[in-house]
Amino acid sequence: MIARVRAGQPEAFAELVRAHTGIALRAAAALGAGPDAEDVVQQAFVKAYCALGRFRDGAAFRPWLLSIVANETRNTVRAAARRTTLAGREAALVGTEPVIPESADPAVATLETERRAALLTALEKLSEEHRLVVTYRYLLEMDERETAEALGWPRGTVKSRLNRALRRLQRLLPDGGAPA
């Protein structure tokens, strides 16, 4: 599809936009764009289009685009000089999806809500690098290779930072993160 865009077929870029808008919006929201997520994603697609000449043939588009989304989100958040809590990012990430199914047992639902709140609080305490790697790997469900490409880190760095982040999360969670 990239070759088609480079060959002057704008409808091919429209296909890329349609295919990747969802994950780009989730990434922007998860990384703190809040209500500016749509603007961030739109700007990221514009920047991606302008930078297609530098896109490496044979590389995956999604991680490359998500690294642009991450940079654009950082720029937007810094420019706005505001700090969004991870709980707000998580709410934006999930959108309208119910966190707990309506059919769930109220006691189980309450416990899950408490666990989720504890996890979000613990994630907020991680360094930016650790929060990023956990967000890409688990919230955005990217595999190790895609995470490495999106963050611009070697795979070994992704592995080690993810390992450290998960160990830190375990220490930060009540009862060491053990299920009840």
UniProtKB/TrEMBL annotation:
Per UniProt, residues of the RNA polymerase sigma factor 70 region 4 type domain are: 117-169
User: Source species, please?
Assistant: Streptomyces lusitanus
Query: InterPro entries recorded for this chain?
Result: RNA_pol_sigma-70-like, RNA_pol_sigma-70_dom, RNA_pol_sigma70_ECF_CS, RNA_pol_sigma70_r2, RNA_pol_sigma70_r4_t2, RNA_pol_sigma_r2, RNA_pol_sigma_r3/r4-like, WH-like_DNA-bd_sf
Instruction: Give TM regions.
Output: none
**Pfam families in the cross-refs:** Sigma70_r2, Sigma70_r4_2
RNA polymerase sigma-70 region domain mapped to chain residues:
22-83
**Does the record bear DNA damage in its keywords?**
no
* Top-level division of the source organism's lineage: Bacteria
Q: Which NCBIfam families match?
A: sigma70-ECF
Entry keywords, A to Z: DNA-binding, Sigma factor, Transcription, Transcription regulation
Give the record's family classification. Belongs to the sigma-70 factor family. ECF subfamily.
Q: What is this protein called?
A: RNA polymerase sigma factor
Asked whether the UniProt record includes tRNA processing among its keywords, one would answer no
